Amino acid sequence: MTRLPHINDTLARLREHCAELFGPIAEPDPGFLRDFTPLEDPRPPFEVRMLDLAEYVSNWATCPRLSVGAVIISTEGYVVSTGYNGSPRGLPHCWDVGCLFDSSGRCKRAAHAEMNAINQAADRGVSIAGCSMYVTHQPCPECLVRLLNTRLDAVLYRHAYDHPTDIASRLDAMVRQSPVRICHWRGA
């Protein structure tokens, strides 16, 4: 069995080789960070950045009635999936053939951003358990019920949605009973 050379010997040979190629390697000044003053983070709060990302994704929407974007973010802060409202895969877009309105004036041709984000994660085999969703608009009643059935930790939205009062109170009761936190972002 061949023994691996000792790591210090390898590093010393590497240092010598680099010195031959590039000249001597200076040792860093141990006090070079002594006078370092951390800068204040100039970025907006994390929630604002994620809601801004959802707004950007909403630009991809293919329904002219309303552009909605959604992003699902992992507990580590990484983008898991995105979604926007638009026709199902492979079907004509609203802007090509027109919206399909129900009696209340809502487009039924377009799949909603929240469901598209969940479907994208599922298509890729990525779990959304414990993740958070950031959405440009408050979920509609149908999406809200589906979101309450996920294992998302939270759903944060920027723009409120006008639900009729009788539906709003029933939806609020469901939200209060759910482990999924649904929150309207009103700024910091």
Count of strand segments = 5
Shape: elongated
CA-CA gap between termini: 63 Å
Instruction: Indicate the low-confidence ranges by residue numbers.
Output: none
Share of helix, binned:
25-40%
Mean pLDDT: 86
Strand order of the largest sheet: 2-1-3-4-5
**Structural class per helix/strand content?**
alpha/beta
> What is the count of helical runs?
6
Largest sheet descriptor:
5 strands, mixed
SSE string = HHEEHHEHEHE
- Bin the strand percentage: 5-15%
Radius of gyration: 25 Å
Question: How would you describe the oligomerization state of the chains in this entry?
Answer: single chain
Task: Explain the overall architecture.
It is a single chain. With 188 residues, the chain is of the alpha/beta class. It is 35% helix and 14% strand. It has helices spanning 7-22, 46-58, 94-97, 113-123, 141-148, 165-177; strands spanning 69-73, 79-84, 132-137, 154-159, 181-184. Helix 5 runs parallel beside helix 6 (165-177). The radius of gyration is 25 Å and the shape is elongated. Strands 2-1-3-4-5 form a 5-stranded mixed sheet, sandwiched between helices.
